[in-house]
């Protein structure tokens, strides 16, 4: 049996594409092992799929001063040793990395042991963790055509991002029953990312009285971000996090407001949902979400509202105008299509595995 190690962690965006690949990997006859951090969010997500999981020590490379900058290199070195021991024991044919700092020692250990590694970059501009892995990678998959020029030409492959197939099979009827919503008014789905967004949450709640005149609102607010004073508001439902029900809520949505993480916007495109993207500010990130959002805006898939311009008034205007112009956004998404990321990535993995045998 062929064996593969999946790795990646730190945010849901580094994990969900790996989860999306699991059914195809198992169907293709791969035995799968996941390597992540000891107690990162990836552990819970992966163990829920029934996939064997091994934790290693991990650190973070920061561009700012932090006392952990003095200790994290030692955690990374420890993780490298642990990853090498796991790989020697499991003896995989291939590594697939979705990035995040926990993946760096795994990919570097694989290089040391002569195990080929494929890495995947979801954002338009590669993150530091993936850039540190380039020299150890056999192939580098990417999500945006613009990214190809930023990658080593002999390794770069445009594949799109793997999307969980179950997200495309939601039931509006199940969502109506679960939420108590009705078909009389359209549904606005707000998602602030796996950790939530205070800025987005605050603006949505400020605009809520006006939004509820035109929409029913499903609000996935993130951990510890619920507002108990709004729990009984007619036409409004709020959640910290949604798992099994997400596919049904996607099916129910007529328009979406979302951050612009690469995996999130790929799901929006695959689902064909008119949307307003509010990318994470460059003050709080390396600006990758802004570039992701602008690419989708340029292709006609999305309307972009910068976080610096976010307010009750601008949010209301963006939602209203996007919904009124929804036919144009839908036509652009239909014309542009979306690659079958699972099939494309599997093709790369299988070709690398075949070349090794």
Ordered list of secondary-structure elements with their pairings:
Blueprint: E1 2-7, H1 16-27, E2 30-37, H2 41-47, E3 53-56, H3 72-90, E4 94-97, H4 103-113, E5 117-121, H5 128-131, E6 139-142, E7 156-158, H6 172-179, E8 187-191, H7 198-211, E9 216-220, E10 236-239, H8 246-252, E11 255-258, H9 262-271, E12 275-277, H10 288-298, E13 303-304, H11 312-324, H12 326-336, H13 341-356
Parallel strand pairs: 1-2, 1-4, 2-3, 4-5, 5-6, 6-7, 8-9, 8-11, 9-10, 11-12, 12-13
Helix pairs in contact: 1-13, 3-4, 6-8, 7-11
Describe the structure.
This protein has 357 residues and is an alpha/beta fold. The protein folds into two domains: 2-160 and 339-356, Rossmann fold (3-Layer(aba) Sandwich); 166-336, Rossmann fold, CATH 3.40.50. Helix content is 40%, strand content 16%. The chain contains 13 helices and 13 strands. The strands form two sheets. It has a seven-stranded parallel β-sheet with strand order 3-2-1-4-5-6-7, sandwiched between helices. A six-stranded parallel β-sheet has the order 10-9-8-11-12-13, with helices on both faces. α6 crosses α8. The longest helix has 19 residues, at 72-90. The N and C termini lie close together (12 Å). The mean pLDDT is 90. Its main location: membrane. It is found in: Cell membrane. Its EC number is 2.4.1.227.
């Amino acid at each position: 049996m062929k064996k593969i190690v999946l790795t990646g962690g730190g945010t849901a965006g580094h994990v969900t594409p790996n989860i999306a690949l699991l059914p195809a990997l198992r169907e293709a006859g791969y035995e799968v092992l996941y390597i992540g951090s000891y107690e990162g969010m990836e552990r819970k997500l992966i163990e829920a799929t029934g996939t064997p999981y091994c934790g290693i020590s991990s650190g973070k490379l920061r561009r700012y001063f932090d006392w952990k900058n003095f200790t994290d290199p030692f955690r990374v070195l420890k993780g490298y040793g642990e990853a090498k021991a796991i790989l020697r024991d499991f003896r995989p044919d291939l590594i697939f990395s979705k990035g995040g700092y926990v993946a760096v020692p795994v990919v570097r250990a694989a290089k040391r042991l002569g195990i080929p590694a494929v890495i995947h970059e979801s954002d338009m501009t590669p993150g530091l963790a993936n850039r540190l892995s380039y020299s150890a990678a056999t192939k580098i998959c990417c999500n945006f055509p613009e990214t190809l020029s930023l990658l080593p030409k002999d390794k770069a492959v445009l594949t799109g991002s793997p999307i969980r197939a179950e997200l495309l099979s939601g039931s509006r009827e199940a969502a109506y029953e679960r939420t108590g919503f009705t078909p009389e008014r359209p549904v606005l789905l707000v998602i602030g990312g796996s950790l939530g967004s205070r800025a987005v949450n605050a603006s949505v709640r400020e605009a809520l009285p006006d939004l509820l005149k035109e929409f029913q609102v499903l609000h996935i607010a993130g951990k510890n971000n619920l507002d108990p004073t709004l729990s009984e508001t007619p036409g409004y439902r709020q959640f910290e996090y949604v798992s099994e029900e997400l596919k049904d809520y996607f099916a129910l949505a007529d328009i979406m407001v979302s951050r612009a993480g690469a995996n999130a916007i790929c799901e929006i495109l695959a689902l064909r949902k008119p949307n307003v993207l509010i990318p994470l500010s460059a003050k709080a990130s390396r600006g990758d979400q802004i570039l992701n959002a602008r690419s989708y805006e340029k292709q006609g898939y999305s309307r972009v509202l910068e976080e610096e311009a976010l307010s009750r008034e601008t949010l209301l205007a963006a939602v209203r105008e996007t919904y009124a112009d929804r036919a144009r956004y839908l036509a652009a998404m239909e014309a542009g299509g979306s690659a079958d990321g699972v099939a494309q990535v599997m093709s790369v993995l299988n070709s690398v595995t075949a070349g090794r045998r």
